[in-house]
Structure formats: C-alpha cells, structure tokens
Amino acid sequence: MRVLAIDPALRNTGWAVLERRGKENRAIAWGIIRNAPALRQSQCLVAIMKAIRAIIAEHRPQSCAIESTIYVQNFKTAITLGAARAACLMAPAEAELEICEYPPRRVKQAVVGRGAADKAQVAFMVRALLKLTETPAHDAADALAVGIAHLESTDPGSPWQREKQIV
User: Fold this and answer.
1) Alpha-carbon span 20 to 165, nearest angstrom
2) Which of 53, 55, 94, 143 could be disulfide-bonded to 14 (CB atoms 3.0-4.6 Å)?
C-alpha cells in the first residue's frame, strides 16, 4: 500500500509518500512545499494544490492521510490553516483517493508513544522507524509521521484503526 501523507500549512506544507510491504514501512519521497512570504494567500493555495497534484501524478499513491485541524486561539490563523488544508485536499479528492485524517496527538502517539511529544522527538523517531540516513526537516517529518500513523491503522489488529476518520 502506498500513501500520500500531508501536514498542511500555508507557507510550509510537509508531504511524504510512504509504502508498506509486509510489516515494514518505507519512505519513498518527502519534502516541503514552500511558499514565499511575498505570495498572496490565494497564490499559495494554488501552488499547494498544483504541487500535490504533481506528487500524486509522480508517485501514484492509493490513499491520502492528512493531519486534522488543531485547536488555535487566533481566528485568523484558524481560517488560514483551514484554507491551506482545503488546498491540500483538492488534488487527492480530484484523484479519487480515499482521504483519512488523524489528530496530531494520535500521530505523535503512533510514532513516539506519547501525544505530547515535541517536533524534535517526532523527527528523531521518524528517522529511526523508517531507517533514514538523515533527520528530515520538521514539516516533512510531521508528514512522514502522519503516513506512519496511517499505515499502522491499516493493520487489522492495530488499535489505531478506530482512530482514523475518512474525509
């Protein structure tokens, strides 16, 4: 099974493509969709959608996993994050991929073992679990972690199976 995993943000959207073969998870590709501060929000949203469309065309995932919206205290930040998340969902929806979302705490629990882990701990564990030669940047590591949580949820005996929500 091959999954596209996404950690949505307006300026730095993390993405990863992972594959599960047997009981082993493998990272195929990962990166960050970077949008310059000078770009208007609308331009960033289009850039995110186009980049994800290209990733889907290149790597042909069967499903998509995305981190669900986190609680934010600032209304403007919540609207911006919601728009970025929508841009991230457009290409997988257009490609008719099953889209599952995972709360940030559940992603951290699946990778680190506790839901309050910080970004450095997530990145370290992602590197260890996927046997990477270098630690990925935080946004890419977060996307890889979402992918790991998704792949683990596909195991019929996994306690994470009930945690996913299909969007």
Assistant:
1) 20
2) 143
Give the domain CATH number at 99.
3.30.420.10
Range of the domain at 43: 2-166
Please compute Rg for the chain using Cα positions.
15
**One of 7, 101, 142, 163 is an active-site residue; which one?**
7
Question: Of these residues, 24, 98, 118, 139, which one is catalytic?
Answer: 139
Q: How many domains does the chain have?
A: 1
pLDDT of the chain, 167 residues: tens digit per residue: 999 999 999 999 999 999 998 889 999 999 999 999 999 999 999 999 999 999 999 999 999 999 997 767 788 888 899 999 999 999 999 999 999 999 999 999 999 988 889 999 999 999 999 999 999 999 999 999 999 999 998 866 665 555 556 66
pTM of the model: 0.91
Can 7 be counted among the known catalytic residues?
yes
* 118 tagged catalytic: no
